[in-house]
Design a protein that fits this description.
This protein has 158 residues and is an alpha+beta fold. The chain has helices at 2-27, 60-80, 87-110, 129-147, and strands spanning 33-37, 41-48, 113-119.
């Protein structure tokens, strides 16, 4: 049942991400803007062929390779629990994976990732919902591993 819920969460996250990207493309012209909450964010449609700050621009093969390796890692972890992740950590890994999958769908289908959320209160690259899942999932996973899963760092796993 745990894994069915993980799959449903991933499907929901990818659906939310793809919906927001579809809506952005349908309603905002490329490089156009739509006001969000003043002082907080606005929606700005950009096409990103790289990663954050356009790093690795045009290197789609690298993103595909990283995603494939992460997919194999997750399959192995979920099948064997080899690394001793907790159930919460499985949820966080699934959030990261769902974000990666949302962006991978764009890369394979369009050749770029649709980004739309631009922060107004700080200088930061335009990002999307998938990026939120990746970033929040990674940060929460790291915090949980550092503070609450001491067994993860021991040589002997469960």
């Amino acid at each position: 049942m745990h894994y069915i819920l993980l799959v449903l969460m991933a499907v929901g996250a990818v659906a939310l991400d793809q919906f927001t990207k579809y809506w952005t493309v349908a309603n905002i012209p490329l490089h156009g803007q739509l006001e969000g909450i003043s002082g907080l964010f606005r929606l700005t449609y950009v096409q990103n062929t790289g990663a954050a700050f356009s790093a690795f621009k045009g290197m789609q093969w690298l993103f595909i390779l990283i995603f494939a390796v992460f997919t194999l890692f997750l399959i192995l972890e979920f099948a064997t629990n080899r690394w001793g992740f907790t159930r919460l950590e499985h949820w966080l890994l699934t959030a990261v994976y769902a974000g990666g999958l949302g962006n991978m769908i764009d890369r394979l289908r369009l050749g770029y990732v649709v980004d739309m959320i631009e922060l107004e209160f700080m200088e930061f690259p335009v990002f999307n919902v998938a990026d939120c899942f990746i970033t929040c999932g990674c940060i929460a996973l790291l915090v949980h591993l550092l503070l609450f899963n001491k067994a993860f760092w021991k040589d002997e796993k469960k």
